[in-house]
Specification:
Number of helices: 5
Largest sheet: 8 strands, mixed
Shape: globular
Strand content: 25-35%
Number of strands: 8
Strand order of the largest sheet: 1-2-3-4-5-6-8-7
Oligomer: single chain
Distance between the termini: 23 Å
Structural class: alpha+beta
Helix content: 25-40%
């Protein structure tokens, strides 16, 4: 298999590669396919669309070193290739041992291993100094909480407005 090639739980072939500056349109299209609940869980607000400024933050600021973003594209034998998941890790410049993590999986691909594959690939590409992750997660987003728990030792403070501030201490790289 080529680097980045994998099979999802149902056997669907997929590839993971770095999010490129040219992926803005595909990212916007993936966002439009998300349900309102998935949009809320990812952005913690009811966004109706990704404006140009948001696309610039999500795509244009990726440097592959301190801001790593990956996309998972499914390659179904009888269907269209398209991105179904994106994950990012942003190292905190004030605390290089910490990074924020976020991921999004298209609704119809949730439960197929997309999030797991993306987070595992992201952790392999994290800056060497990063030993701790942070994420804001809705308390009802049990799938994301379970995925983060598998990444390392998870702790959280009290939920505020239904959102938990989660910290994950990572095993040594």
């Amino acid at each position: 298999m080529l680097p980045g090639e994998l099979s999802l739980h149902d056997g669907t072939p997929a590839m993971i590669w770095p999010l490129l500056p040219t992926d803005g349109r595909a990212l916007r299209e993936m966002f439009r396919r998300l349900s309102p609940q998935s949009r809320q869980r990812r952005f913690l607000s009811a966004l109706s669309d990704l404006d140009d400024a948001m696309i610039q933050r999500l795509v244009g600021e990726v440097d592959g070193v301190h801001h790593v973003a990956l996309v998972l594209v499914v390659l179904p034998p009888a269907g269209e290739e398209w991105p179904v998941g994106v994950a990012r890790l942003v190292q905190d410049p004030a605390d290089p041992a910490s990074a924020e993590i976020a991921f999004t999986v298209a609704d119809e691909w949730q439960g197929h291993g997309v999030g797991t594959a993306l987070v595992e690939a992201l952790l392999q590409r994290r800056p060497a100094a990063v030993t701790r992750l942070h994420a804001d997660v809705e308390t009802e987003n049990l799938a994301s909480l379970a995925l983060l728990t598998r990444a390392g030792q998870m702790s959280s403070g009290p939920a505020r407005r239904g959102i938990m501030d989660v910290t994950i201490d990572l095993p040594a790289a």
